[in-house]
Amino acid sequence: MATTSTGDIEKTKSVEVKKKLNVLIVDDDPVIRKLHEIIIKSIGGISQTAKNGEEAVNIHRDGNASFDLILMDKEMPERDGLSATKKLREMKVTSMIIGVTTLADNEEERKAFMEAGLNHCLAKPLSKAKILPLINNLMDA
Amino acid sequence: MDTLVAQLQRQFRDYTISLYHQGFLDDQFTELKKLQDECSPDFVAEVVSLFFEDCEKLIGNMARALDQTGNVDFSLVGSSVHQLKGSSSSVGAKRVKGLCVTFKECCDSQSFEGCVRCLQQVDIEYKSLKAKLQDLFNLEQQIVQAGGRIPQVDI
């Protein structure tokens, strides 16, 4: 395991993360929030959680929030993922936003979610294998 | 002659495989185990515990919604089913997830009898899984207490 200068590159077991990620996990399900927290931790990132889209928007209201990545669930009470994503983009939030959908969502629903301002969409359940290449590709772009 | 550790490890392996073969667990549970390491040694037990708390809460919500005789809000029931399907999928609770698919269909078609039947089955199924995973975690503890390592099980 190699560690170089603080904050830039970490090697975690055999998985390389090119930059230490700061992630906002938005989901109304505590099981999924916990799972996503651990996945992010396992790839060397740190995370904060929000229980719904409204909380996610409120976290950004003072303009000081700075996340590299937002994992946004689609179906949530108070404010759903589509509405939260649109609002965050209106607020000029430039974080990568990955929408987390279910297999039950049809193509139109996924398309509408993407058009709200997502960078990408993944289907639940998330895993390290699903998310890591996507994060590395998006960070390179 | 097998040592106690070897016997326990074999029991653990056989029991784990049976949980997959009988459809209680799927690959997502394997993914959870892979995330468990020295930094998060109790991760699987924590997530599974959260899942069962979630089950109790959501089943309670569904039961209350279905108890409104003649005035059942099927969209409310469906919303809880949707959430349970998501969390069961995330921990690899295959049978519970499968029941949620049927349950959602009953909600969508506003079948009261179907919903009541599904609710009963979900309740039975999550309690059954809870007991089986408790047995599995107990076996892990016994192996560790006997000085052994928990074997990796390839499904």
Automatic annotation (TrEMBL), chain A:
Gene3D superfamilies: 3.40.50.2300
Classification via PANTHER family: TWO-COMPONENT RESPONSE REGULATOR, TWO-COMPONENT RESPONSE REGULATOR ARR22
GO terms (BP aspect): phosphorelay signal transduction system
Protein name: Response regulatory domain-containing protein
All residue ranges annotated as the Response regulatory domain in the record: 22-139
Taxonomy of the source species: Eukaryota, Viridiplantae, Streptophyta, Embryophyta, Tracheophyta
Organism: Brassica carinata
Pfam families: Response_reg (PF00072)
UniProt-listed CDD domains: REC_hyHK_CKI1_RcsC-like
TrEMBL record, chain B:
Predominant localisation class: cytoplasm
GO BP terms: cytokinin-activated signaling pathway; phosphorelay signal transduction system
Localization of this protein: Cytoplasm, Cytosol; Nucleus
Residues covered by the HPt domain: 40-147
GO terms under cellular component: cytoplasm; cytosol; nucleus
Superkingdom per UniProt: Eukaryota
Annotated positions of the Phosphohistidine modification: H82
GO MF assignments: histidine phosphotransfer kinase activity; protein histidine kinase binding
Record's keyword terms, sorted: Acetylation, Cytokinin signaling pathway, Cytoplasm, Nucleus, Phosphoprotein, Two-component regulatory system
Keyword Cytoplasm: yes
UniProt keyword Metal-binding, yes or no: no
Function: Functions as a two-component phosphorelay mediators between cytokinin sensor histidine kinases and response regulators (B-type ARRs). Plays an important role in propagating cytokinin signal transduction.
Domain notes: Histidine-containing phosphotransfer domain (HPt) contains an active histidine that mediates the phosphotransfer.
Name of the protein: Histidine-containing phosphotransfer protein
Organism for this UniProt entry: Brassica napus
Species lineage: Eukaryota, Viridiplantae, Streptophyta, Embryophyta, Tracheophyta
